[in-house]
Design goal:
By secondary structure, the chain is of the alpha/beta class. It has a single domain (21-139), classed as Spore Coat Polysaccharide Biosynthesis Protein SpsA, Chain A (Alpha-Beta Complex). It is built from five helices and four strands, in the order H-E-H-E-H-E-H-E-H. A four-stranded parallel sheet has the order 3-2-1-4, sandwiched between helices. Helix 2 runs parallel beside helix 3 (68-76). The longest helix has 13 residues, at 36-48. The radius of gyration is 20 Å and the shape is globular. The N and C termini lie far apart (44 Å).
Length: 144
C-alpha cells in the first residue's frame, strides 16, 4: 500500500496492483550409463532453457566412467546432483520414483528424460517456465 501511495504522489496512479510473479521451479531426472560423451551437452541444453536442477542417477558399472569427470563444475555450482545407482540392474523406474519422492515438494514440475532426448521450445517460448506458465499447465494434476 505504501508503494501505491508513493506512485500516486509522483505519477498520479491510483491503486496499482503490484504482485510478484512466482517463478516456477523445474527439475529434471535422468538415469544414465556410459553417457559421458553426451552429459555436458545435455546439462548445458537444459540449463539454457531454464531448468533449476538436474538429478543424474549414475547407473554405470562400479569401476566405469564417472559423470563427475565431465561436469564437476555444474555439480560444484549445485545445478547437478549425482545419485549413486552404480552397478545396479534394471533401476530406471526405481530411480524415477526415487526422484519424484525426494523432490516433488521442492519443485513445481519434474521432467523425466533420457540422455538422447532434448526438449525444444518453439518461439515465443525461451524458458521452460514461460511455456508452463503461458500454457496454464501449472494447475495440471497427475493422473493415477
Amino acid at each position: 500500500m505504501f508503494l501505491n501511495f508513493i506512485l500516486y504522489i509522483f505519477y498520479g496512479f491510483h491503486f496499482i496492483k503490484i504482485s510478484k510473479k512466482k517463478l516456477l521451479k523445474v527439475c529434471l531426472c535422468v538415469i544414465g550409463k556410459r553417457e559421458n560423451r553426451y552429459v555436458k551437452e545435455f546439462v548445458e541444453h537444459y540449463k539454457k532453457i531454464g531448468y533449476n536442477k538436474i538429478f543424474i542417477y549414475d547407473n554405470n558399472e562400479i569401476n566405469d566412467e564417472k559423470f563427475e569427470d565431465v561436469i564437476q563444475n555444474e555439480i560444484d555450482k549445485g545445478f547437478v546432483s549425482i545419485i549413486n545407482y552404480r552397478g545396479l540392474k534394471g533401476k530406471q523406474v526405481f530411480s524415477y520414483k526415487d526422484c519424484y519422492k525426494n523432490n516433488n515438494k521442492n519443485y513445481d514440475w519434474l521432467s523425466f528424460f533420457d540422455f538422447d532426448e532434448f526438449l525444444e521450445l518453439n518461439p515465443p517460448f525461451i524458458k521452460i517456465q514461460d511455456y508452463l506458465e503461458i500454457k496454464n499447465l501449472k494447475n495440471a494434476r497427475i493422473l493415477k
